[in-house]
Amino acid sequence: xxxxxxxxxxxxxxxxxxxxxxxxxxxxxxxxxxxxxxxxxxxxxxxxxxxxxxxxxxxxxxxxxxxxxxxxxxxxxxxxxxxxxxxxxxxxxxxxxxxxxxxxxxxxxxxxxxxxxxxxxxxxxxxxxxxxxxxxxxxxxxxxxxxxxxxxxxxxxxxxxxxxxxxxxxxxxxxxxxxxxxxxxxxxxxxxxxxxxxxxxxxxxxxxxxxxxxxxxxxxxxxxxxxxxxxxxxxxxxxxxxxxxxxxxxxxxxxxxxxxxxxxxxxxxxxxxxxxxxxxxxxxxxxxxxxxxxxxxxxxxxxx
Amino acid sequence: xxxxxxxxxxxxxxxxxxxxxxxxxxxxxxxxxxxxxxxxxxxxxxxxxxxxxxxxxxxxxxxxxxxxxxxxxxxxxxxxxxxxxxxxxxxxxxxxxxxxxxxxxxxxxxxxxxxxxxxxxxxxxxxxxxxxxxxxxxxxxxxxxxxxxxxxxxxxxxxxxxxxxxxxxxxxxxxxxxxxxxxxxxxxxxxxxxxxxxxxxxxxxxxxxxxxxxxxxxxxxxxxxxxxxxxxxxxxxxxxxxxxxxxxxxx
Lengths: 304, 251
Hints:
The complex is a heterodimer of chains A (about 300) and B (about 250).
Chain A: E1 2-5, E2 10-13, H1 14-31, H2 36-45, H3 50-74, H4 80-107, H5 110-142, E3 160-163, E4 168-171, H6 173-189, H7 194-204, H8 209-234, H9 240-263, H10 266-289, E5 296-300
Antiparallel strand pairs in A: 1-2, 3-4
Helix pairs in contact in A: 1-9, 2-3, 3-8, 3-9, 4-6, 4-8, 5-10, 6-7, 7-8
Chain B: H1 2-12, E1 18-24, E2 28-31, E3 38-48, E4 59-65, E5 68-79, E6 82-95, E7 98-102, H2 106-109, H3 112-118, H4 122-127, H5 138-151, E8 155-158, E9 163-165, E10 169-176, E11 183-193, E12 196-209, H6 211-222, H7 224-250
Helix pairs in contact in B: 6-7
């Protein structure tokens, strides 16, 4: 069944969009990532104009994250206090990120920088997580207890706050900084930023993996809602028909994913996420390194 | 007064010996939610005021051109180890859609000069909107633009697809792809003899969005804040709805 998208001005198969939404939704529910880093490139691939894909994806992430966070709230795996602290940073970061994005667009190289950002961040995070979770799995096999959280410089900063759900007593500075950085990247890369925030929460803040997923979803809802409004009012590129089709698949997928996630061990979850992140990274790096079959591309005037 | 004068002038100028009388299967195309491309049937007849000597062959060319848009064509080049967009060419106006149907092989029907004058072939019709300054090898960019759009069926050259009967009646059809841009589409009819255009006629097809498509499009552009809030409300409702449904299924 073909559907004509009013804003994107292209006709696409409705079932293809539902399927894409569903698959990305499952991953989103399992790992607590919005799925934007997978969905946005997939939308480019099926012929949605990039500007529309990025803006609409933000809206779709709101839906799948909301659905996911409800499942996590029921299981009490959301650290609301930590979520609000991250969110404050995230909104500041998103506003900054949009400014940086517009500046890069004026330079005419925004596509390249977005891709390099992807390759760099996905590469670093993916490899770190992969190695770490592989070690964790090996240690549990040998019967060694998991390494205790070490106290590092992060614990010596001022403005300490108690995060009961995470079992942490740390300064608010690192979470705010994580929020700002993720917000900037989210706005530039057109994603929710979960794939960066989740590892940052685990490795930098030392939060328990089970809480990390729900908390990051909580923060992502608000940051992507903010981004959606920015895109809708400045670029008019949010395609509601596209968003609805993606989110029908997405919300159902997120529910299924959240339930699969409960059944898997934390290390298994992390190694799967790491493998996926590395896969996307490899594909993007490959595209940058290999000579494309079509060297030319057509863009609307004003770039992107 | 002036109008009557103009009319008189028009009437007294000798009529062209051959003229096109043409029709379209539809002169408006509505883009609704299930729009999946469209095919327009184009037909017509050649009207003659006087006998024509039959030494030369009559040819019919039909072109359909979509609304013009400005765009940028970029080219990737190797920079260190990665492929990066480097040179670019700004195209002030290129048709979003351009199709030609002819009654014989194009090069037999029309001379290069006539093509240059009337901007008929895809190359000429596109190149006309390309700025001459800037990149040195602008031909490569124009070629790439045509190549990419031809692959997407946005630029079409359908030689010998116009059926011409008894040098009088003709008909053809042009397929419009699903990713059609709304706007006015110009349909041109050209009659050729001895590789020259002897007569031409122009009409238009209006492509517009209807129903839900139109409502959403105008809302997004005229009330962006409400549109944005509506998108968010739908997203949150869908997220909540799915969670509720799953809770119900499990209990």
